[in-house]
Every structure is written in C-alpha cells, then in structure tokens.
Amino acid sequence: MINLNPLHSASQADFVQSLDGIYEHSPWIAAQAWARRPFANLDQLKLALAWTVRDAEPALQLALVRAHPELAGKAAGGQTLTAESANEQGKAGLTACTPEELARIQQLNAGYTAKFGFPFVLAVRGPRGLGLAKSEIIKTFARRLDNPPDVELAECLRNIHRIAEIRLNDKLGHTPALGNRVWDWCEQLSTHSDPGHAERGELTVTYLTDAHRACARQLAGWMRQDCGFDEVCIDAVGNVVGIYHGSDPQAKRLLTGSHYDTVRNGGKYDGRLGILAPMACVRELHHHKRRLPYGLEVIGFAEEEGQRYKAVFLGSSALTGHFNPAWLDQKDADGTTMRDAMTHAGLCIDDIPKLKRDPARYLGFVEVHIEQGPVLDEMDLPLGIVTSINGSVRYVGEIIGMASHAGTTPMKRRRDAATAASELALYVEKRGGSLDTLVATVGMLEVPSGSINVVPGNCKFSLDIRATTDEVRDACAADILAALQRICRQRGLHYKLEETMRASAAPSAPDWQQRWERAVEAQGLPVFRLPSGAGHDAMKMHEILPQAMLFLRGLNGGISHNPLESITNDDADLCVRTFQRFIDQLATELS
Ligand code: HGY
Ligand code: MN
Ligand code: MN
User: Fold this and answer.
1) Per CATH, is 5-172 categorized as 1.10.3330.10?
2) Whether the CB of 381 sits within 6 Å of ligand 1
C-alpha cells in the first residue's frame, strides 16, 4: 500500500510541491487539502482533493477548468502544454492528428468555447487509464457539446479529478490491480452479445441466447481456473454458482452475487460488477490460501432484467423457491417458449425446485452494484450504502382502436390508438413527477406494423412504476389505470393490460447495512446512505434472507441501461477492497 507518511509530515509548502502538477496550474487545491491531513490512505487523499474543489468558490472552480489546454488545439500545436498534459495528449495521439481529425477537433473547440466559455476537459487516459481512442475522444466531445452549461462545468471538474487521480497513481507508483482485473473481466464478458446487437457494437445478453450461455461458461471458467472456487456449476435455470468453503465446509455461508443478463444495448457493469467483485475477493483468498469461518457462495444470476421473457428476477426467484412454472409457457418475440429455450440450453427443468435455498444454511445476502443514478457521481463520492430498494410494479398493455386511411378519415371520426397511448404517457409523466419518492415510466411505445398513411388501430405500451413504499407505488398505479380507462372511454377505444411484475420495497437489514457502513468507514471514506431507484436481485433474496447493498458510482452522471454506463479501474479497485474489508470484518465477528 502507498506510504503517505512523507506527505503527512511535510510543511504545507512541501506538501504543495510534492503534489505539483496533479491539478493543472492550480496549487491552491493541494494547499487547501493539506489542512485535511492526515490521510488514512490514497482513497482518502483523492477524496480530500476532490472535495476541496467541490467546496471552493465557483470562480475558483471555473479558473481550474480554464487552466486546462484545449484538446489538440493551439496549445498542443504551440507546444505550451505542461509535461503531464503533453504526455496525456501524446499518448492519446492528439499531437498526431490527421488534418481531418485536427479540423474536427478545432471545430468542436470553437463551438464548445463559444457555448461554454471554458475549454473542453476530458481525461483522455480514460476509465481504465490506458488511453481513449481519438475516435472516442471526438465522439465524447461532440456529445458533451449538448450538455447544459452547469452540467458540463461539473463534468469537466469530474474529468479533472480523474486526470488528477491518474497522475497521483503515477507519481506514487500505485496500480489498482484488483480494479484492473474486474474492469478487464467486464470488458471480456461484454464481447458476448446477442445477434442483431453484436453487429452494431451493442451489448445485449438476453436469457439463454448463445451469448448468454457463453457468458455463463466464461464466468464458470474464471471461477474454476482463475479464482480457486471449491465448487462451480451452472444450475437448472442458468445461474452460475461458485462456492468457496469456509475452514469448516459445513459452516454457514455468506450469499452474494448479481445478474449477468443485460437490457438491450445496455452497459457492461450493471449486474456484472456484483458477480466479479466477490470473485476477485475469492481469488485473493485462494491466492493467499486463506479460509474464512464461513463459506462464500457467489451467484451469477441468469435473468434479472426480464427482456426476452416477462420473468423478472428469474434467477433469484429459483433460489427463493418462487420460480413460476407458468413462465415456461411464455413465448419470446420469435415464438420460442422458455421451456424450449431451456431444453435447447441443456437445462434440466425438473431440477428447478431443487434450487430453493434453505435460509438456515446462510448468514445473509449482500450485493454490490453500480448506482445507476447521478447521486454519487455528482458528490464526487465513490461509494454509497443502500438503505432500501424501491418497490416496483410493471405492466404491458395494448390500446385497441381502428386503423383507417390517414387521408380520408376526418380528425373527429378517428379511433387513434397511438394518440390515446400518448395522452396516457403524458399523464404517467405528470403523475410520476408528483412525488420525489416516486417514478413512473412508459419505456415501450409501439404501433405494431404501423404505416405512415394509416391511423394507428393498435398501440402497445409498457408501464414501470416505482416508489420507496408499496403504498405510494400502488396509489400511483391505481391512478394510472384509472386514467387509462378514462382516456379509452372518452375516445371510444378498448385496452388490454397485464401485470408482469410486482416487487415489494426491500429495506436493508440494519445489521447488514451497518456491516457495509463499517467497511466503508474502514476505508477512510464517509458513509453516505441512499435508496435504490433500480431493482436488484437483493430485493428478491430479501424474501428469504436479510440483505444489504453497496453502490459504486457510475461515470457520465451515473447513466445506466445505456452503453455510456462506465466505471473507473480505481473505483472498481476500491469496491473490491471494501468488499474485502466487509469479508474480513465479518470473519472477525464470527471468529
Ligand atoms: O429495472 C431495474 O431496475 C433493474 O435494472 N432490472
Ligand atoms: Mn438493469
Ligand atoms: Mn442490475
């Protein structure tokens, strides 16, 4: 681990000198952060520097951004870059652009500076620290040009902290090895994607497709060959199960894990981080020939998103004994039943009931997951403790009107299913926005076999309603269903509606939440508690075991269910080390 003692005993001037170049032309940051010493570790030093900027006057923050050179702009051309910037821009190839690239970047520079009045700042070494491709830099530049000014200024500051983090790692000779491993595993797992999406460079892994089964084999292979699990299998619903026994193989186990399926065109870390982080912990235990006074059972849940079939939390439902046999007859968009998909995958459907776990064999369930929201990223805080997972209910529906000629059907004589669905969608947006503890979404809206010159006779839609309490969720659902009835009655239309999922709000078990809190505190980081707007396997496991979750911040405003979903290698490293703390503290507690 990095020895920070020389920094602690340094005078303020020496401290500032030691950190010269970490933040571009801005020694005031180190000078002010000095007062926050001692730093228990590098994580705490990085946070102190970031929060020094966060707490600074807006004018100072703006000056910090303005202290940065334009990318491949006149600065690079004029060779007035600091050594660090020259190194970073050089590694990204930005000092060797083609004329077209240079013209495009300088065009973006001009537009960006005109809009924001400060230079575009991007950590070109990227989330893994190895450097972004010029094409990705240019794509990011163009994308962020659309940000509102306040959002973009904050994004520049976050990139400045990432640049500083990488420079600090280099200066102190620190390599986030555990984070690199998890980050690279996520990258390798993301090479498996369903046909029709893979060709477009999209990550889509839906239940029991070839890509899905390749992921299962990949995870099982890593568990067996790289991590040293004692038992590894792919179970009757496709969950990947790895067991690392305690000193007594009969000892109770800590159950942990998350899902490896994805939404369509999803991100690389949703679910997967929660499988790979504990796998990295087991790998370290095995490497050091350590056994705990309890077992570790890591699950890669096969199906959480409910994309191919309307069977959300299928993987974790099998473990709680709530696998619904009716799911087997569900058909996917191609008419393949789940039963046939399972048979094709070589799964033994008769064995599914045997997957039910006896709670008495387990201590509890914990899950690590990316936050999938903006809170931690906006706070420049890497870790958060989940207090409760929002309850949710989902529906799929169809409004039925009458298809007719777009040219001859008078506006007042139409039975237009799409405008009715649109009126419903606007009501859903309004009702969902009525409380801070509530969200409501129409995620799918589709005119089946629609034509440009036909008044839509049918319109399919989905509803996703979530709240911190089941009461708020249900009141919102009732209002939306009433609105659907009213809209269809007023327009002379019919509708069909099917509830496809209902999950109760799942408060964290206090003692397990406190275990995560103690692990984060032991890392020298502040404890920040937040609810989860996203659903997770933990809310299913909540039905049979005490559970609690740890969140890791996402980059790009924490965006998720989107290919922009991203985490850094340093944050992945901190996540694994925090999980290791959790594991060790639990071992001490049980010894
Ligand atoms: O939709 C959710 O909340 C989760 O990502 N399945
Ligand atoms: Mn998800
Ligand atoms: Mn997830």
Assistant:
1) yes
2) no
